[in-house]
Design brief:
three-stranded mixed sheet, 159 residues, 45% strand, five-stranded antiparallel sheet
């Protein structure tokens, strides 16, 4: 996180906490020649437009006064989305009993088949492994996934 992103994080966190929201990420990025200050928030029962509007307005007022960004930018406050990437061990632990998508650095073998990803219900997080229940041809199977082999873990939509 850059110094500027940390400043915005520090300004945004109290706004989120006061409104039962979780601040997930702050990014300063360029897209199509525009500078965008992206603030991603989350809430247990889902983020509403009222939530994003509130954070946008409150943070916007603070940024107008402090003016930490010298050039023109767009402030974009949004939800992390339903398929949120789980970036920290705390995120993963809070996602126990949720449906996840896991991609591997090195493919794993599951019943004589090599796979580079799985989807299933995260049952537990141990010191070095995730316990995931997957549907394998109509049968539910618990597997252990080595955490150091996980390239990406995110929430997923179960179809």
């Amino acid at each position: 996180m850059t110094k500027l992103e940390q400043t915005v994080w520090d300004l945004t966190k109290p706004i989120c906490e006061a409104n039962n929201l979780e601040l997930v990420e702050v990014n300063l990025k360029k897209e199509f020649g525009e500078t965008i200050l992206e603030v991603l928030i989350d809430k247990e029962d889902g983020v509403s437009i009222d939530d994003t509007t509130l954070v946008n307005e409150e943070l916007g007022k603070l940024l107008d006064v402090l003016d930490p960004i010298s050039n023109a930018y767009l402030l974009e406050v949004s939800s992390v989305g339903i398929e949120r990437v789980l970036k920290s061990s705390e995120d993963v632990k809070k996602s126990i009993n949720k449906y996840v998508h896991i991609e591997f650095n090195d493919p794993i073998m599951i019943e004589n088949n090599k796979t580079s990803y799985i989807e299933g219900t995260l049952l537990d997080v141990l010191e070095n492994t995730y316990i995931v229940q997957i549907n394998l041809k109509g049968r539910m199977k618990k597997i252990e996934v080595l955490i150091n082999n996980v390239k990406l873990i995110r929430l997923a939509i179960k179809f």
